[in-house]
UniProtKB/TrEMBL annotation:
It holds the Pfam family Zn_clus. InterPro entries: Zn2-C6_fun-type_DNA-bd_sf (IPR036864), Zn2-C6_fungal_TF (IPR052400), Zn2Cys6_DnaBD (IPR001138). SMART domains: GAL4. This is Zn(2)-C6 fungal-type domain-containing protein. Residues 59-83 have a biased composition (Low complexity). It comes from the Eukaryota. One of its GO terms (molecular function) is zinc ion binding. The lineage of its organism: Eukaryota, Fungi, Dikarya, Ascomycota, Pezizomycotina. Residues 84-98 have a biased composition (Pro residues).
Length: 466
């Protein structure tokens, strides 16, 4: 019998896993073991965590008086949009938990938060821009911290992502996982409380930035999991990654009237407009992922067939669009752009859906320089490969080749010339950026309503909002 494969112990797992002496996957907001057994997880309950002594919450008299109760909805209906029901959110919404206010006079506490804020503004913020545009990077670097000073959930999320980035840079520092978990738990608690109160002109931009930072940590935190496939660490699908980015899309829809003229609009405008060819007239690169779709749909209840077909065709069309010009903004937009139905198929571990996301993760090799995507391609593609049968393993051959390629991935490995066949508009369909696209879709769809009300119109132009 071959020797048992060794594995790195988790030092930042939840308390329940530590008490049971089992490996914790450190997934947020609820770890995999607690999800599996249907028990509370202290990642999801800040009161169950022992906040580090270095944590400090600076509060003004006004914010301190409001921190112990759930924020009330805005009295003005003209400036408030009630957030959609909880199934549209990346995490389930529990009642907000009371926050702990520690002494603001501890030099250690001040030094810790100053270190994290400095890390965010100088190192982390420039890596978060979806597109390689200076205005987007400046918005993350200047506008987001400015919003955070008056928004506790955003400040906590900002400090949490900085702690996670520092953990990637200095993995030997044992305090960083603890800082990250405490700040992120606090951010999730106040974020859900604010969502319950309604999206307003005052909190809309900050809620968008918070949702985006939560999504970034959902992807970045997976790099700290052990190699998948071993007995000690079975592979788990990155469903939280997709749900978190879907949450960003939901916040954008609810808060768009307040985002269009805000200082953080450049973050959204850095995303190019989608012009997806849902029914290409000539062969497309990922056509093989749709082979046999008709036969698969015949086995489904009739009421699910059309929606499922659209989910697959849209996701594969996005892959073809991103593959033609593998830019960061195109690739990282995939989890937020696919439909809710597609996410359900991923949750079910549907083979076709898994093959699609394996191809997406392989594409992240094109932006492997981003710390929160480092190593993602190889880890996720190998993990997904272990869940597929022989037929589907053959269909993801491109994903395996790209993910396992050592060194820079050139056009010969990628397949096809970058930008080939996109026309003079670069595959944007004549649109400037995604913000123009959102304006058009929401106007044609009848105003600011929930995604389901105009999902068909949006999908016609490449956006799956349902």
């Amino acid at each position: 019998m071959p020797p048992r494969r060794s594995h790195k112990k988790s030092r930042a797992g939840c308390q329940r896993c530590k008490l049971r002496k089992v490996k914790c996957d450190e997934a947020h907001p609820i770890c995999g073991n607690c999800t599996k057994h249907g028990v509370p997880c202290d990642f999801d309950d800040p009161s169950a965590l022992s906040p580090p002594n270095s944590l400090v919450r600076y509060t003004t008299p006004s914010s301190s008086s409001n921190s112990s109760s759930t924020p009330k909805p805005s009295p003005s209906s003209s400036t408030s949009h009630q957030f959609p029901p909880s199934p549209n959110l990346p995490f389930h919404l529990d009642p907000p938990l009371p926050s702990t206010t520690l002494s603001p006079y501890s030099p250690t506490s001040r030094a810790t938060e100053l270190r994290l804020l400095h890390t965010y503004t100088t190192l982390t913020a420039p890596t978060l821009a979806w597109g390689d545009t200076p205005p987007a990077a400046l918005a993350w670097q200047l506008a987001v911290p400015n919003l955070a000073f008056n928004t506790p959930c955003l400040m906590d999320a900002l400090l949490a992502i900085a702690a996670l980035h520092l953990r990637a840079l200095t993995p030997s520092d044992p305090s960083l996982p603890r800082l990250f978990h405490a700040y992120m738990a606090s951010a999730l608690s106040s974020y859900t409380a604010t969502l319950h109160s309604g999206v307003t002109a005052e909190n809309g931009p900050a809620l968008f930035a918070t949702a985006a930072l939560i999504a970034f940590q959902a992807s970045a935190s997976r790099r700290f999991l052990n190699e998948p496939g071993s007995e000690a660490e079975p592979y788990s699908l990155p469903t939280q990654w997709f749900h978190a980015f879907q949450g960003v899309k939901t916040v954008v829809i609810a808060a768009w009237p307040f985002l269009r003229s805000s200082d953080i609009r450049p973050i959204i405008s850095a995303q190019p407009a989608l012009a997806l060819d849902l029914h290409p007239s000539r062969p497309a690169f990922f056509d093989d992922l749709l082979v046999g779709l008709d036969e698969q749909l015949e086995a489904l209840p009739e009421g699910e067939r059309d929606e499922t077909r659209r989910a697959y065709e849209h996701s594969v069309a996005y892959l073809n669009w991103a593959h033609a010009r593998p830019e960061k903004a195109r690739i990282v937009g995939f989890p937020a752009t696919v439909s809710r139905r597609f996410i359900e198929l991923v949750d079910r571990a549907d083979s076709r859906a898994l093959a699609v996301i394996a191809s997406f993760f392989a594409m992240t090799r094109a932006v492997d320089g981003a710390w929160w995507l480092s190593g993602v391609a190889l880890k996720e593609v190998r993990g997904i490969l272990g869940l597929l049968d022989e037929e589907w393993r053959e269909r993801v051959g491109w994903a395996v080749r790209v993910a396992e390629w050592e060194g820079e991935v050139g056009e010969d490995v990628w397949g096809g010339r970058w930008g080939e066949g996109e026309g003079v508009d670069g595959g944007s369909g004549g649109w400037g950026d995604v913000s123009e696209h959102i304006e058009f879709v929401l106007t044609r769809g009848g105003g600011m309503v929930e995604g389901e009300a105009y999902g068909g119109v949006a999908e016609e132009y490449g956006m799956a909002l349902d």
